[in-house]
Design a protein that fits this description.
Length: about 325
């Protein structure tokens, strides 16, 4: 690199500026130092390179031709070096601040999960599907006919008291108290033989405790054809328990019971921590129910059941209180 005769003896030549600049830059430890260097060499008033660039006009044409390109090239070089140094300092600062360790394993992403009741609902659907049952759904807002009358529970019959009901204001509609009305809706539109399950939400206007909720899930079952018997029900339910509890030892019992829409009626209980917990009502479909949907009750028979989904989940997963399901407590939800 060439040098220029200087008008002012204190002014450095280009080689000297270049050397002095790179010495200064190497020593710079922070952005403030980089900025000082920029001013020292490129500052508008007294920048060392600026002075040279400004003095070019006083040189002879020949000298200017020789020096001009060198000075301009150095300006470009200085600007680029300053930018690079700034970037370098930023990266180093970031590493210092975050103590960044690229070998450290990444944080595990938090993903959502299915609610335990959704899981159990899916398990139940899958098991019955594997036994050739179809999955059917029905409305949560019902009329009196489907929720009660067609199920052989006439108006003013004391049996209606078993289903404490949320009535909708100014209408004859209600929030269904069980999934049994879907039996009626399905039979109105389909002919036997068939076997269905109906999972869904039900609502009852009653006090809550560790095994009762006002809003819970049931899974209805209905199988209708010729010569269907209670023995078929027993087989299906025992198969279901075997698959649902997957080898977990459970004790269960069938006990006579009364529901207006079945005859005979039974209840199924499972032992939980030494106490019997009622998990389902069931029985042989009552002839009056077949009549309400226009079926010939002399030719057809069928069994029906309605089980409490939360209660089955409580037994399988050891949940001590039904109110935990809807508590919104993440510590509970995240366990499953
Ligand atoms: C019924 O609701 C009948 N529809 C069941 C039925 C269907 C019988 C078909 C015959 C033929 P029950 O009120 O007992 O019956 O309720 C059925 C199941 O739902 C109970 O065994 C229980 O497991 C669950 N259950 C009832 N009430 C509650 C409640 N408040 N909270 C949580 N689960 C409940």
């Amino acid at each position: 690199m060439g040098s220029i005769p200087t008008p002012d003896t204190k002014t450095m030549n280009i080689d000297e500026i270049k050397k002095s600049f790179s010495d200064d830059l190497e020593k710079a430890k922070d952005q403030k130092a980089v900025e000082d260097i920029r001013i020292k060499y490129l500052g508008r008033q007294k920048g060392k390179l600026t002075e040279i660039l400004r003095s070019l006009k006083d040189l002879s044409v020949e000298k200017r031709r020789e020096t001009g390109p060198l000075a301009n090239a150095l300006r470009k070089e200085i600007e680029e070096s300053l930018t690079r140094k700034t970037e370098q300092l930023q990266t180093t600062n970031y590493k210092l601040q975050t103590n960044f360790d690229i070998t450290r394993p990444g944080l595990k992403l938090k993903t959502g999960r299915l609610h335990l009741l959704t899981k159990v609902d899916r398990e139940i659907r899958q098991i019955f599907s594997s036994m050739n049952f179809s999955v059917v759904e029905g409305p949560e807002v019902e009329d009196e006919f489907h929720n009660f009358d067609a199920l052989n529970i006439p108006k003013d019959h004391p049996a209606r008291d078993s289903w404490n009901t949320f009535w909708l204001k100014n209408s004859k509609l209600l929030l269904r108290t069980h999934t049994s009305p879907v039996q009626i809706r399905y039979m109105e539109k389909n002919q036997p033989p068939f076997q269905i399950i109906v999972p869904g939400k039900v609502f009852r206007y009653e006090a809550t405790d560790s095994s009762h909720e006002t809003n819970f899930y049931q899974v209805e079952g209905l199988m209708v054809g010729e010569n269907i018997s209670l023995a078929n029900f027993k087989f299906v339910i025992e198969e279901f328990f075997k698959k649902f509890f997957q080898g977990q030892k459970i004790e269960f019992r069938f006990r006579p019971s009364y529901f207006p829409f079945v005859e005979p009626g039974v209840e199924v209980d499972i032992k939980l921590k030494g106490k019997w917990l009622e998990v389902m009502g069931a029985g042989m479909v009552h002839p009056n129910v077949f009549e309400a949907v226009g079926y010939n009750h002399y030719e057809l028979t069928g069994f029906a059941f309605g089980m409490g989904l939360e209660r089955l989940a409580m037994i399988k997963y050891g949940v001590p209180d039904i109110r935990l399901f809807h508590s919104g407590d993440l510590r509970f939800i995240k366990q499953f």
